[in-house]
Design brief:
Distance between the termini of chain D: 46 Å
Number of domains of chain C: 1
CATH topology of chain D: Beta Polymerase, domain 2
Radius of gyration of chain C: 16 Å
Largest sheet of chain D: 5 strands, mixed
Strand content of chain D: 15-25%
Number of helices of chain C: 7
Number of helices of chain D: 5
Order of helices and strands of chain D: HEEHEEEEHEHH
Distance between the termini of chain C: 31 Å
Structural class of chain D: alpha/beta
Shape of chain C: globular
CATH architecture of chain D: 2-Layer Sandwich
CATH class of chain D: Alpha Beta
Shape of chain D: globular
Chains: A mainly alpha (about 625), B mainly alpha (about 500), C alpha/beta (about 180), D alpha/beta (about 190), E mainly alpha (about 300)
Helix content of chain D: 25-40%
Helix content of chain C: 25-40%
Number of domains of chain D: 1
Oligomer: heteropentamer
Number of strands of chain D: 7
Strand order of the largest sheet of chain D: 1-2-5-4-3
CATH class of chain C: Alpha Beta
Chain lengths: ~625, ~500, ~180, ~190, ~300
């Protein structure tokens, strides 16, 4: 088999999954080694992936696989997160039950994501999409208990999305007679505009479910909160990006020529903006670290959708850049929260506190990640947001700028709450013996990703190069003077020099830090966090004065009119109503033989009456 | 054929019936024969299938009973479609036997196996026969053994369910018999092929009435809404292996009969649309009814009805793709639902509450895995068999431009996913009674065979493509059927 | 500029000294009736801010601890705690006769009588209660002491910590406070 | 008003025959109860006489009789008549009965009395310190506690006040004014 | 030589910023005192405070993050300053202003706040945490009108570079305060929030929160923060002058313009009581935001 071909690539990915599963029964170490090897080899193979396409017939349909620059970029995201995820799982999952199942599903999920990306036709995309859905569903319910509920919710939302996609696929197939995206796109433009709108609408709806776009985000908080932490990193970081991938494909490969393209994209951009704003507000309310991050993910994906929907080269660059960066820093955050959970068994922000001296590396990871998330220079997050704002302003979306900026600023609130509640505040006696997580399997993935945020902050060109080729593939004009290795330009010709920026920030920071450290160094004392000014009181050992509960009460009061309504509750209500209606329908089956006999007779009478009437 | 004695489709019916009559005698000799004989019978029938089915795919085998040529004599029509179903039935019979070896403990076992074999024989007879009265007889055989099996566990509520089944089932027989009588009075023939040719003798209004009678009669066995009231009770009352057979065999046989009769005798557009709509209604209502169901077997029963509704909806399209899809859905359903019934029974036993699944993921990992597999397959997730069947249904609908139907089917799939995943999730709940119990190998083997089928079709849907295409052709091509039967 | 015996002060230290005495951040520990005398001192009528005297709410930022009246044993513990949390150099002003000799609470079972037994007091302002004028004159006295380098209570406290601790522990039975380490 | 008090006294005597009821000179009604009846009486007053409000629990140290007297001051918002329920308890090894279940605020008063008089309350065991901190001497509000001696012993005196005399006696010595008996400082005999 | 000159330019900028910053703060204290019928401290009082704080003999911290907090703060203020063109002409006070743009400035300004918030968080003092909670909430309030105003300016001038916005206001008539008064109103109200003067000083409310976030900072840490605060005040004022008043061509002009601008929050601060956090947020989202939207509509109409 050609080792640069897609089949080999997928064979490695899927085969590794089953091999790891089988080897679990031989030895734990072997399983881990194979799992790590699988993801690393497939990540490495991405570099040598050949251009040729590959077709196979299955059930009367021709499935075509092949790579495009666009899919390669997303595959890069997957690979970038898959390796740390698997590495992080080793120690993390050692405590959990059914590790074999976990690795099987994890690796299948990863492989299915590659499959989605390398599908050139809609059906194989759908097949891999569903494989990804069920394997991630199984991962979500891995913990059992509450996770089951969350998992089912996730699956149902996903199923709604997936079947919307399938609906369109069937119709598109019927129209064009081919499943290849190119052919579909070609015959798509020949349809009447309303049909185009319907099809693109259902497709976009389906993909946006995975991306967690409001109002279809209801699964995200529960699923992210309940799934095992390493997988959550992949879930939020890479899996949700599949929705973005699909939306990009639909918008720019199929739907672009339609007369409805522009209004739909405009609508989508607003949906993204509103999603980011509302999800940010919800994130501020959360008291569970993982739920907080879940809402944050929804919000961040909202940004990506904004950029994706605007469709200017700059905005697309922004969208894809944020897609990568969000994957990285959200993975860091989920890893760190997972590390904390691993050591303390807690994710409740009201109970955690003061871990900074116990888990400094996790703290550093979270710090880097939230600086990146809050778009503060000099880390990578800033670059993405800069591109996004510039593109928004230059494409005359002034109010969208405000919405985006609002949620970006409001995101300081929840990131601060996250880092404060977990790591800062008074140290708790309960956590006295908490140790930092092991280096190789848990710290290393976190630190490696932290390094990525740092490097992309200085040299975004590393990421912008593949993005540019991906965008060129999608048909965007990318001029080579839009960016250089460490400089960005907007369409008005203004530039921002990231290298100068980091030098200034770095120099000033180091100077300030040195002055602070050296000046009266010997008279500077460390005191414990119990030694604080509390009107002269000494907090006893069991007293903890950290202010964590209802942390943003004033803010919540200010935005109460918005927060008092819930889309999720509304959708849940619909679900409940359907369920109750089903319950009601069950009364048809009374359990009484006479009734059933009457049904038969009445049905026959009805048939005969209808027949005679028709005649 | 270099056999000791010539194999013929008759053996499908004859062998189980013979074995059923022999069983009480054999039981006198040794108790252990009771268990072995049915297995041997099913194996033999499977062997017959293995030999005959490839031939049937090429050209239908038409067997005349007692040497009388049609239309005077009774004939068996063993075409691709019939062959497919007959093989499927005997295979399911074998698997259920395998499963019952250890899981079925309710005495008298000999009577259980007699009824089992009669059920299979009757259903196979429905599929094979070319004579409409014979069809009625076989239907009665099937129905009576089904009634008895429903009440086999001999508890009050089971008896009640059995009684309901008898009540409704006898209505069905009455209507079918009435229909046959009317047809006979007009045409003077009972042979299906001959009837098909002489249908113009029957006035249109009578045809409509007879169609209505047949629809109700077969519809009751095929679980069409609102005629399926018996089904939830019967499924939950019968021992699970029998329920698996209900889902896999009786319903399929009735569906076959309905399809065959409708296509041969009542090929007007209205009837097809009606069947399609009825299928959709059945699908929607059963899936919704299953949504809140706490009783596992009832849940599976509703789901069964839903799946049959899906198949009927596809069948009602009456295009080659539609029938192909319907066949695919039926096969998929027979395998998957059979497996689910068996797996659930092996895990939760007769107690059918959903809570009994709690924590099974730890106690019985293999069966839980199989259940999960089955649930995924029936929801229609790739790469399992259900996906391809559902996809073929959808494309068939798409080709006729019925986008609304597609939407309805997909929407019900979401409902289906809800309750199946709720059940799947239960498996992996942490709580649950910590009772350890070994599942016997035979049960696991039976379930595993079906699971292998799911995976096989899932990964190689092309492998049954040929059979299904031939089956669809066979069903739709009425001219070929009548010619084939009447040429001798 | 009046030089004390340390003529060797460098220019930097002069500046420091000047800044220290003209920027006094006051933490008013409002015990007893003296607390009510502080607001007029700070506000329009007496305007202590013209001397650079500003109120601060936390001991970490404050230079001057203003003890405005009698101290019960329970309060004394908090005052000591607060004093120890202040950063060097730090000054204490005892305010009113209660801090000097117990005042009207001289025979109470629960109030200490002499504050400088327990912590170093740089300036006492007598009176019961002293008026704002006296308070300001007390502050000016403190400024003079700082200028002369004599407001060195914090050094004394460091040097004689054991003595202070003995006295403190004599009245505060349950001594459960962090160590004083600067 | 006085009618009301009369009526109250009458109905109280009828309903609570185990207590002696009398009208106080300065308004209000006084009710003497025994320790055993106390909780029942208070509950009765609360439920049937509208005494919803417990204003205070006060303690009197009858050193000479070797008794503590607890005074429960109740208030009726409707009739606006204050009610004093008094109960005498043994001074040494005596104990009161907690009425926290009737009035939660009683907890504070009971803790104060327990701390200041050393009188424990059954049902309010081991209360946290309320006002004093780490007090290890005799409860300071007992009449046999000598505050001056304690203060002399515990706290440092600034030199220069050794000859301190009572201000009033100095003045009377100077002017010949007679000090009323009530103003003479209490000294232990 | 050129390098040396450039580097000395940085230091000169920082020096000027610091000096002007503390003088302005001293001035505001005097002004407040006069309004309250007091004499008030000398104008250099803030310098004395800062020197005193730096001359403190001891300092305590509760851990590395508290140690880093003031460093973050000073990084934010100095970086902001260095990326702002202080004067229109000459290259001494330009520093790095060609390398960044307004959006960068918006975000780097938050850097210090986040650092301070983290530092304050580590102290474990509940007052600090409450202050931070209020402060960050308030940021969300005032950033909205501020960004609306900035967007209006950026769109009007079709640039995100502060330089070009400044260059476009070459005559008094072209000053943005006259061209787009709505933007100015929105931005200046946001500026009130940014400066944390009353009525928006609830994060630091001394009587209520013991000065809020910095309540555990003393000695050199507080000194660093106050130093940084002085520089930051000047940087923000210069930014506003550049945005709305056409920048300045010499230091004197800059002083006059910044002082004029500075008087606005000071005078409003003297005479107003304090908003609660949610009131402040709602206020910011009401009037200034309305002005901000008007300013954008104004720009759209003008183009």
């Amino acid at each position: 088999m050609d080792i640069t071909g897609i089949p080999f690539f997928l064979a490695v990915s899927f085969g590794g999954a089953f091999l790891a599963y089988l080897l679990h029964f031989a030895h734990r170490f072997l399983r881990n080694a194979v799992a790590l090897l699988t993801v690393s080899v497939s990540a490495a193979l991405l570099f040598w992936l050949g251009d040729e396409t590959f077709s196979i017939e299955m059930g009367g349909f021709i499935l075509t696989l092949g790579k495009t620059p666009y899919s390669l970029f997303f595959a890069g995201i997957v690979a970038l997160l898959a390796v740390p995820t698997v590495l992080f799982s080793f120690t993390y999952m050692a405590k959990e039950e059914r590790p074999a199942m976990y690795y099987l599903n994890l690796l299948i999920t990863i492989a299915a994501m590659y499959g989605i990306l390398f599908s050139l036709d809609l059906l194989s995309l759908f097949i891999f999409w569903e494989i990804m859905t069920w394997s991630s569903f199984l991962l979500t319910i891995h913990k059992g208990g509450n996770a089951t509920k969350a998992g089912v919710k996730y699956f149902l939302y996903s199923a709604a999305g997936a079947y919307a996609i399938l609906f369109s696929i069937v119709i598109l197939f019927n129209m064009s007679g081919s499943l290849l995206i190119e052919d579909v796109a070609r015959s798509f433009v020949l349809q009447n505009p309303l049909m185009q709108l319907m099809l693109a609408g259902t497709l976009l709806f389906g993909f946006s479910v995975k991306a967690g776009l409001m109002p279809m985000h209801g699964w995200a908080p529960d699923a992210y909160a309940e799934s095992p932490a390493p997988f959550t990193a992949l879930f939020s970081g890479a899996l949700s990006k599949m929705g973005i991938f699909g939306m990009g494909m639909v918008l720019y490969q199929i739907f672009l020529q339609s007369p409805f393209s522009l209004p739909v994209r405009e609508l989508l951009a607003w949906a993204g903006g509103i999603t980011s704003a509302l999800a940010t507000l919800r994130a501020i309310q959360q008291t569970d670290a993982k739920r907080l991050l879940a809402y944050s993910s929804v919000a961040q994906l909202g940004y990506i959708v904004i950029g994706l929907a605007l469709g200017t080269p700059l905005s697309m660059m922004a969208a894809l850049f944020i897609a990568l960066l969000h994957g990285v820093f959200k993975a860091m955050l989920f890893f760190a929260v997972g590390a904390v959970y691993f050591r303390t068994g807690l994710t409740d922000l009201n109970e955690l506190r003061g871990l900074i001296r116990r888990m400094p590396v996790s703290f550093l990871t979270v710090l880097m990640a939230i600086i990146s998330l809050a778009n503060i220079p000099p880390l990578g997050g800033f670059v993405g947001k800069w591109l996004l704002y510039e593109s928004l302003i230059q494409s005359d979306h002034y109010f969208l700028v405000i919405v985006a900026f609002f949620s970006s600023t409001a995101s300081f609130l929840y990131v601060y709450r996250l880092i404060f509640s977990i790591f800062l505040g008074q140290e708790e006696k309960e956590f006295e013996h908490v140790k930092e997580v092991p280096f190789l399997t848990m710290q290393l993935p976190m630190l490696a990703l932290a390094a990525v945020t740092f490097i992309t902050g200085i040299f975004p060109g590393i990421v912008l190069a593949p993005i540019s080729s991906a965008l060129t593939y999608l048909g965007f004009p990318i001029y080579h003077d839009m960016w250089s290795m460490s400089m960005l330009f907007n369409e008005w010709g203004n530039r921002i020099n990231l290298l100068a920026m980091i030098s200034v920030i770095g120099t000033v920071f180091l100077t300030g830090f040195t002055i602070l450290s050296l000046y009266r160094m010997r008279r500077t004392r460390y005191v414990t966090t119990k030694d604080i000014h509390t009107s002269g009181e000494v907090p006893t050992e069991n007293e903890n004065l950290t202010y964590a509960i209802n942390f943003y009460q004033p803010f919540e009061r200010a935005v109460y009119p918005v927060l008092s309504k819930s889309i999720r509750a509304w959708i849940d209500w619909i679900g409940r109503s359907v369920s109750e209606f089903g319950d009601f329908l069950r009364h048809i089956y009374t359990g009484d033989g006479q009734t059933y006999a009457w049904y038969v007779v009445l049905f026959l009478t009805f048939m005969l009456a209808a027949g005679s009437w028709l005649l | 054929m270099p056999e000791l004695f010539p194999l013929s489709p008759v053996h499908y019916v004859a062998a189980p019936l013979l074995a059923a009559f022999l069983l009480p005698l054999v039981a006198k000799l040794s108790r252990s024969f009771i268990k072995i004989l049915p297995g041997l019978t099913f194996l033999y029938v499977l062997y017959v299938s293995a030999v005959l089915f490839p031939h049937a795919l090429q050209s239908p085998i038409i067997e005349q009973i007692a040497g009388w040529a049609p239309p005077l004599g009774i004939n068996l029509y063993y075409g691709p479609m019939a062959g497919l179903f007959a093989s499927l039935f005997s295979a399911l019979g074998f698997i259920v036997w395998l499963y019952s070896l250890t899981q079925m403990k309710q005495e008298p076992l000999d009577r259980f196996y007699i009824l089992l074999m009669m059920l299979v024989a009757g259903a196979t007879g429905i599929v094979l026969t070319g004579d409409i009265f014979n069809l009625f007889v076989f239907m009665e055989i099937t129905a009576i053994s089904a009634f008895s099996l429903t009440a086999f566990l001999r508890e009050d509520d089971k008896a009640e369910a059995g009684f309901k089944y008898i009540l409704i089932g006898s209505l069905a027989s009455t209507f079918v018999l009435l229909g046959i009588a009317v047809l006979y009075s007009y045409t003077g023939t009972l042979n299906l092929a001959d009837l098909a040719l002489s249908m113009e003798k029957v006035p249109l209004s009578v045809r409509v009435i007879v169609f209505g009678l047949f629809l109700v009669g077969f519809g009751i066995e095929a679980e069409i809404f609102p005629l399926n009231g018996w089904a939830p009770d019967a499924y939950s009352a019968a021992p699970a292996p029998v329920s698996a057979l209900f889902a896999g065999i009786t319903v399929k046989a009735a569906l076959y009969a309905l399809a065959r009769v409708t296509i041969l005798l009542f090929p007007f557009a209205g009837s097809m649309a009606l069947i399609s709509i009825l299928g959709l209604v059945t699908l929607v209502i059963s899936e919704l009814a299953a949504l809140h169901q706490k009783n596992l077997f009832r849940m599976l029963a509703y789901s069964s009805m839903g799946q049959v509704g899906l198949a009927i909806a596809a069948l009602g399209l009456f295009t080659a793709e539609g029938v192909y899809a319907a066949l695919f859905a039926m096969i998929n359903h027979a395998i998957v639902k059979g497996m689910l019934f068996l797996a659930v029974f092996a895990m939760a036993g007769g107690s059918a509450n959903l809570d009994n699944l709690n924590g099974m993921g730890r106690k019985k990992p293999v069966l839980s895995f199989m259940f999960t597999l089955g649930a995924f397959a029936i929801i229609g997730l790739p790469p399992f068999s259900g996906f391809w069947s559902k996809l073929s249904v959808l494309t068939a609908m798409g080709q006729t431009g019925n986008y609304i139907m597609i939407a309805i089917v997909l929407a019900t799939t979401i409902v289906e996913a809800t309750y199946y995943l709720r059940a799947t999730g239960r498996l992996y709940l942490s709580e649950g009674s910590p009772v350890e119990s070994k599942t016997p190998l035979s049960a696991i083997a039976a379930v595993a065979v079906l699971a292998a089928g799911i995976l096989w079709i899932g990964f190689f849907p092309g492998s049954i493509d040929e059979i299904l295409t031939a089956g669809a052709q066979d069903l739709l091509d009425t001219a070929k059927y009548t010619e084939g039967v009447l040429k001798d | 500029m009046e030089m004390n015996d340390k003529d060797t002060l460098t220019i930097v230290e002069h500046i420091k000294n000047f800044a220290r005495r003209h920027s006094l951040f006051v933490l008013a520990y409002g015990t007893g009736c003296g607390a009510i005398e502080v607001p007029p001192t700070m506000t329009s009528r007496y305007d202590a801010e013209r001397f650079g005297i500003v109120g601060r709410a936390t001991p970490r930022q404050a230079d001057v601890l203003l003890i405005t009246g009698y101290l019960s044993v329970k309060t004394l513990k908090r005052v000591i705690r607060t004093y120890e949390q202040m950063q060097n150099p730090k000054y204490v002003i005892g305010f009113g006769s209660c801090t000097i000799n117990g005042g009207m609470y001289w025979d109470s079972y629960n109030t200490i009588k002499v504050l400088d037994q327990y912590m170093p007091v740089d300036v006492y302002i007598n009176g019961c209660m002293p008026r704002p004028e006296s308070v300001i004159s007390g502050f000016i006295k403190l400024q003079q002491l700082i200028k002369a380098g004599k407001a060195d209570g914090w050094k004394k406290y460091q040097e004689n910590l054991d003595w202070y601790r003995t006295n403190q522990k004599k009245v505060i039975k349950n001594w459960n406070m962090p160590d004083y380490n600067w | 008003m006085s009618d009301n008090i009369q009526n109250l006294q009458k109905s109280l005597s009828e309903r609570l025959p185990q207590c002696s009821v009398k009208i106080r000179k300065h308004g209000g009604v006084e009710l003497n109860s025994s320790k055993e009846n106390l909780v029942g009486v208070l509950a009765h007053l609360r439920e049937h006489f509208g005494y919803r409000h417990l204003s205070h629990i006060s303690c009197v140290d009858w050193l000479e009789q070797n008794q503590f007297e607890l005074v429960y001051i109740l208030w009726n918002y409707e009739s606006r008549i204050q009610l004093f329920v008094k109960v005498r308890l043994a001074r040494e090894n005596g104990s009161g009965i907690s009425i926290r279940h009737l009035w939660p605020q009683a907890d504070t008063y009971e803790r104060e009395i327990a701390e200041m008089y050393g009188l424990p309350f059954d049902g309010n065991e081991n209360p946290r310190e309320l006002i004093l901190e780490d007090w290890d001497a005799m409860p300071p509000m007992r009449r046999d506690f000598d505050t001056r001696a304690y203060s002399k012993e515990a706290f440092y005196d600034r030199p220069g006040r050794e000859d301190a005399k009572d201000v009033r006696s100095v003045i009377s010595g100077r002017s010949g004014e007679e000090i009323p008996e009530i103003a003479i400082p209490y000294t232990r005999k | 030589m050129e390098t040396l000159k450039t580097i000395s330019g940085y230091f000169a900028t920082i020096g000027v910023a610091f000096t002007v910053g503390f003088l302005f703060m001293g001035f505001s204290r005097i002004l407040t005192a006069r309004v309250q019928n007091r004499v008030g401290p000398p104008i250099y009082q803030n310098l004395l405070d800062i020197i005193k704080l730096w001359s403190k003999e001891s300092a305590i911290n509760h851990g590395l993050m508290q140690h880093l907090g003031p460093a973050f703060a000073v990084t934010a203020s100095v970086t902001t300053l260095l990326f702002i063109p202080v004067l229109r002409i000459g290259n001494w006070f330009q520093n790095f202003s060609f390398e960044g743009d307004l959006i960068f400035l918006l975000y780097i300004m938050v850097f210090g706040q986040l650092g301070m918030a983290l530092g304050a968080g580590q102290t474990g003092n509940p007052n600090s945490a409450i202050g931070v909670s209020r402060g960050l909430s308030q940021v969300v309030g005032y950033e909205i009108p501020f960004v609306l105003a900035l967007t209006a300016l950026m769109v009007y001038h079709e640039t995100t570079s502060l330089h070009e916005i400044m260059a476009a206001q070459d005559s008094i008539g072209a000053w943005n305060i006259f061209v787009n008064p709505f933007a100015f109103v929105a931005a200046i109200i946001a500026f009130l929030g940014m400066t944390h003067y009353t009525p928006f000083d609830v994060p630091f409310a001394p009587a209520e929160l013991a000065s809020g976030p910095p309540s555990e900072f003393g000695g050199k840490y507080l000194g660093m923060m106050m130093t940084s605060g002085s520089i930051f005040a000047f940087a923000k004022l210069t930014l506003f002058v550049n945005l709305f008043l056409g920048g300045a061509s010499n230091l004197l002009e800059l002083l006059a313009k910044t002082l004029a601008l500075y008087l606005i929050p000071v005078i409003i601060g003297i005479v107003t009581p304090r908003y609660r956090t949610e009131q402040a947020i709602v206020f910011f989202w009401k009037w200034p935001t309305a002005f901000g939207i008007l300013s954008i509509l104004w720009v759209v109409w003008m183009r």
